[in-house]
Q: What sequence folds into this?
């Protein structure tokens, strides 16, 4: 098991480099490459919490590297290496911060669509199903319960939002945005990756209920970018406790969402910034869930 820093990294400062800060990652432009630094920030309901989760960035990076390596024969991706013992030239003084949580990556033109694959009906998909018996416009069988397994995995794209909420859209709308040929290719690749990963996870006692992929154009092909199949981008359930009909225990940040939902029900938060400070128990239990998912899936 990789070591985890005791001091959380909330924001990085690499001098003289252009930087874009996402909800979790600080992305530095090296010119011909990118540095993706996974901090210990955590977001829920598209709001970054003020309390970090110590070691989370290293766990996410470890998980992404595992999947990039495992999927490399089937799909091209952007990962060059995870920074461990040697920092890029000129950044040697920052190695302690970069180590274990930073990916050197190829640059690609980002496709502005979140490629979501769902194998089970949960979350926003369950809410839509209850209302319309559809998910992103896809008709589903009647009589499904919350968290039921779908007959086949479905592709449910969403728009990418820099701030605020991503929006579920139809496949046809995604084609209008990114092109039919592009979206057909990415839909088929995303479903294939999901099925491969879900089989691996089932053998280790984890259900991948859904996940999202991001893609970028590099030359004449599309490559997998950003993170992949992590507890931040996926819904992981323990297979031995799976029971349709209600929300499931999870190895992802659903535990945090449930805590925040209770605050909303009590009128203590309204899902808008700033997020509430997280109690030590919530931080600790979130780390435990992330670590167990990573340890199980990466052996």
A:
């Amino acid at each position: 098991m990789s070591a985890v820093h005791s001091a959380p990294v909330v924001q990085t400062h690499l001098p003289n480099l252009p930087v874009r800060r996402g909800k979790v990652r600080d992305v530095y432009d090296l010119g011909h490459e990118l540095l993706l630094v996974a901090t210990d920030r955590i977001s829920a309901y598209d709001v970054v919490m003020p309390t970090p989760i110590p070691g989370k960035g290293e766990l996410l990076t470890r998980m992404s590297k595992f999947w990039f390596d495992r999927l490399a024969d089937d799909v091209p991706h952007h990962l060059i290496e995870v920074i461990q013992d040697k920092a890029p030239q000129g950044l040697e003084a920052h190695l302690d911060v970069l180590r274990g949580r930073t990916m050197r990556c190829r640059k690609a033109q980002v496709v502005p669509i979140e490629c979501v694959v769902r194998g089970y009906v949960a979350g926003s998909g369950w809410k839509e199903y209850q209302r319309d018996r559809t998910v992103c416009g896809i008709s589903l069988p009647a009589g499904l319960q919350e968290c039921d397994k779908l007959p086949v995995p479905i592709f449910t794209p969403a728009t990418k939002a820099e701030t605020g909420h991503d929006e579920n859209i139809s496949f046809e709308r995604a084609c209008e945005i990114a092109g039919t040929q592009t979206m057909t290719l990415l839909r088929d690749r995303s479903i294939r990756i999901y099925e491969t990963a879900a089989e691996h996870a089932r053998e280790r006692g984890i259900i991948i209920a859904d996940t999202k992929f991001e893609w970028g154009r590099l030359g004449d092909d599309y490559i997998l970018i950003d993170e992949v199949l992590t507890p931040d981008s996926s819904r992981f359930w323990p297979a031995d406790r799976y029971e349709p009909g209600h929300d499931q225990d999870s190895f992802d940040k659903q535990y945090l969402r449930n805590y925040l939902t209770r605050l909303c029900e009590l009128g203590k938060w309204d899902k808008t910034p700033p997020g509430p400070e997280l109690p030590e128990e919530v931080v600790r239990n979130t780390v435990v869930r992330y670590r167990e998912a990573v340890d199980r899936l990466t052996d």
Observations:
- Residues 19-108 form a domain with the Phosphorylase Kinase; domain 1 fold (CATH 3.30.200.20).
- The two ends are 9 Å apart (CA to CA).
